[in-house]
Write a structure and sequence with these properties.
Strand content: over 45%
Order of helices and strands: EEHHEEEEEEEEEEEEE
Shape: globular
Structural class: mainly beta
Strand order of the largest sheet: 3-4-5-6-7-8
Largest sheet: 6 strands, antiparallel
Number of helices: 2
Distance between the termini: 36 Å
Length: 225
């Protein structure tokens, strides 16, 4: 993924993990990949790469994009968001307010009408929203690893859970006690987790957007199995 000024100069903005995660999430069929499009959100200074994710229902006759990889070109951060089966997104004025409106191929509830409109520019955040990393072997599947700490770069408070294990089966992270990060005073989160596989889960504190731009992990390889 690159940005450029219209000339030959270009800048690579996506770290390998973002590109790999996007490629692994794209659908396999050419027809589903053809649904992919980009949208510029000038309200939030973002570019959305909208696509139908690989695990979306293949039997759905009214296919649209179900996820977006979003890049904020002001603070240089990436995140993913879900989409309601959309085929087009535009910015338009509604009652004097600029809104982001998406056209969806969803069937309107309790009718035979095909197509719905969604306003995507709502500022309301889901209380206690969370993300969980799907890659758990940290690139070294046969190596036992010890996680000692994490050094986040964030603007707001959040909670983090890390669970190490020798099993490839992901644990139930909802029952794990979190470590709290207070952006105004903290710079490190301490963990003592051992295993071949480590599950990371980041949770919002209420409706606070932590705006996490980076995380460095203290990891020590202990040996191979």
């Amino acid at each position: 993924l690159y940005i450029h000024s219209g000339g030959p100069e270009k800048q690579d903005i996506a770290e390998d993990k973002n590109v790999t995660g996007l490629y692994n999430d794209l659908p396999i069929s050419i027809a589903d990949r053809a649904l992919t499009f980009c949208f510029h959100d000038s309200l939030q200074s973002e570019v959305w790469t909208c696509y139908r994710h690989r695990e979306a229902s293949a039997a759905d006759p009214n296919k649209g994009c179900t996820r977006a990889l979003v890049y904020n070109y002001v603070d240089g951060t990436f995140y993913r968001r879900t989409l309601p089966n959309v085929t087009k997104i535009i910015e338009t004025e509604i009652n004097g307010v600029v809104e982001i409106v998406a056209a969806s191929r969803d069937v309107v509830a309790n009718s035979i009408t095909l197509g719905s409109l969604y306003i995507l520019s709502k500022d309301t955040l889901v209380t206690d929203g969370w993300i969980q990393f799907t890659s758990r072997d940290l690139g070294m599947i046969e190596v036992v690893k010890e996680i000692d700490g994490m050094w986040p770069t964030a603007q707001g408070d959040f909670e983090c859970k890390i669970k190490g294990s020798l099993s490839s089966t992901a644990p139930d992270m909802s029952v794990i006690t979190p470590a709290n990060f207070t952006a105004a005073t903290d710079y490190k989160m301490d963990f003592r987790q051992l295993g071949r596989f480590h599950t990371f889960r980041v949770e919002m504190s209420g409706t606070i957007n932590p705006v996490i731009s980076g995380m460095k992990v203290d990891m020590k390889p202990l040996g191979e199995r």
